[in-house]
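Per-record layout

source: Anaerosphaera aminiphila DSM 21120
name: Hydroxyethylthiazole kinase
length: 268
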Amino acid sequence: MNSLNEINKIMQKIKNVNPLVHCLTNYVTVNDVANSLLSIGTSPIMADSIDEVEEIVSISKALYINIGTLNSPVLKSMEVAQNLAVSKNIPVILDAVGAGASSLRNKSTISILERSVDIVHGNYSEIAYIASSVSNTKGVDASSLDESLDIISMAKKVAKKYNCICVATGEKDIITDSETTYVVKNGCREMGNITGTGCMLTGLIAASAAVEEDFLLASTYATALMAISGERAFENYRGLGSFHVNIFNELSTIDEYIFEGAIKIEKL
């Protein structure tokens, strides 16, 4: 990959800048998102009250919106935060958790995308729904996708339609701006057995976008970092509990040499 040196620089940029990332994320995985961001040298803040979202967005380097646990007050906070972030040119990153599973999630996903996002992340099922408006999901399970669907084409369609970077994660991770596409082949299936790995990844993407203006590059770095950390954490697998903790251990200790030696990536 020609941009590998540039990708490696993102790791150091995050540590040098220590960006503040505003996370409007779900209560199931909020702790995991915070700890994953802390592990790589980022300052997370989880402020979803309508009374302070504008203040927090104003001092943040990126806004991360996650629709995993929706309700009316949070949706309003997301709208206010996103509108301000867009007006101030602060990167907006969406995790479309469960898109395709309910009318509330579907409507919210499209509304957020139409207000403008810089990066959208979802598993194969979620990205397929955004691309086609046809549900292929039974919730947040990537394995429920009809395998006959061309996820690369769908990711490109989403990126082009909403003028954003699309990250589709599954057996292989797809990152595209509709013209240039990277496929990350790291990771392991067992990462899907832990609630929160997808949410953690989107946090890493937001942290990377906070310091790197090339959002395709930033998204590719973060996706590879999460996948490599999961892959390495699984090497000494003893069960889901220790595996979960070891992902944080790997995120906090990986360096550019380990990253460069481990990354498996293809440019299409």
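summary: The longest strand covers residues 20-24. The mean pLDDT is 92.
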